[in-house]
Amino acid sequence: MPSSAAKHVRDYFGVRTLLAAHPDMRRLKRATNATHLHGNKLWGSAYLLIDYLQDNPLPNNCKVLDLGCGWGLASIYCAKALRAEVTAMDADPAVFSYLSLLAEHNDVEISTRTARFDELSTDELGQYDAIIASDICFWDEMSKEVFDLIERAVDAGVKKIIIADPHRPPFLAVAEACIDDYFAELTPREVITSRHHRGSILLIENA
Ligand SMILES: C[S@@+](CC[C@H](N)C(=O)[O-])C[C@H]1O[C@@H](n2cnc3c(N)ncnc32)[C@H](O)[C@@H]1O
Description:
Bound molecules: S-adenosylmethionine
Radius of gyration: 16 Å
Strand order of the largest sheet: 5-4-3-6-7-9-8
CATH architecture: 3-Layer(aba) Sandwich
Structural class: alpha/beta
CATH class: Alpha Beta
Strand content: 25-35%
Number of domains: 1
CATH superfamily: Vaccinia Virus protein VP39
Helix content: 25-40%
Shape: globular
Order of helices and strands: HEEHHEHEHEHEHEHEE
Number of strands: 9
């Protein structure tokens, strides 16, 4: 890698990320459509999720679905560190060219799926051992869609659902309902990369 590019690379938890000034990132930004629904950058909660997974790894070769994956940092961590078979899904197809670029820099392959949360059926969710997500519930109207998806995933027998969040009120409403209905755990977590990230991990385990 030319030294001019190397200074725009960061490595946290073994996952390589590119700063906005990296030549590949600049090229991609010029060539692609703008993202919407907040899929426009790497969000800090992905590091809360990765940090949690580092301490509580999924079994090797697990089939993982990353909901509202954005640029897919947590997907990349699962494929790289946990040898998981990962599908990264998002409603906004514009995020996938960023995910592909980062996957390429990390030497992993990730399957992608364009869909909204309410389009994932119980049958489809049942194909996964674990569902992960970070910062996917940020508007009030999203709470019902996210809770209904969790309900379908529990019905489908998905063994673990792990959602990281920086304590946005619509997420906390979902977390409260999951504690009541599914004995979920909500645990505060902090992690420092170049910034200090704070939030919680919601864990739903399906016996
Ligand atoms: C705040 S970003 C978080 C992205 C990523 N999980 C992270 O932590 O960096 C929210 C993501 O959820 C996606 N999203 C929002 N609403 C969605 C929906 N109803 N169905 C699927 N994806 C959705 C957005 O396109 C965006 O990529």
